[in-house]
């Protein structure tokens, strides 16, 4: 094999490898981050304010796990445990003032506040809520796709 052909082959293999890694990170980011689990720091003692179990919207948009609103004294936290949601790009975590949200029409008709971009599609997660947010107003946690205008999961919160 000539040196030119060898370098072309090596370059082609490396380019394919990096393109594959980028594709996996864009289309299925949890494959590269699946071992990560978030926990509250041991120095934070939190009191549970409300909690609820996630449910999906239909057979394609599924969600499971538990959402908890926690008061950590100086901070308020939204925690997901044993969380799973169907894969979709750019999912968002929102809080809603209404329970029983079942579809996109409901989401557009109620008072919601975006919390953050969803960190991962699977596993425990922690979101620090904005200072001064009155969490007692919120009755559900929504997993929302602004890109598709679709609801992917709901956890109705109970105190």
Describe the 3D structure:
- This protein has 159 residues and is of the alpha+beta class.
- The protein has 2 domains: 31 residues; 110 residues.
- Major sheet summary line: 8 strands, antiparallel
- Low-confidence segments: 21-26, 29-37
Radius of gyration: 20 Å
* Number of separate helices: 3
Mean pLDDT rating? 80
Span between termini: 71 Å
- Strand fraction equals 35-45%
The level of helicity is: 10-25%
Shape call: elongated
Series of H and E elements: HHEEEEHEEEE
Number of separate structural domains: 2
Structural class: alpha+beta
Count of individual beta strands:
8
Which strand order spans the largest sheet, edge to edge or round the barrel? 5-4-7-8-1-2-3-6
Question: Which helices and strands, and how do they pair?
Answer:
Elements: H1 3-27, H2 30-33, E1 47-55, E2 63-71, E3 76-85, E4 92-96, H3 104-109, E5 112-117, E6 125-128, E7 140-145, E8 150-156
Antiparallel strand pairs: 1-2, 1-8, 2-3, 3-6, 4-5, 4-7, 7-8
Summarize the structure.
The protein has 159 residues and is of the alpha+beta class. The chain is 22% helix and 35% strand. It has helices at 3-27, 30-33, 104-109; strands spanning 47-55, 63-71, 76-85, 92-96, 112-117, 125-128, 140-145, 150-156.
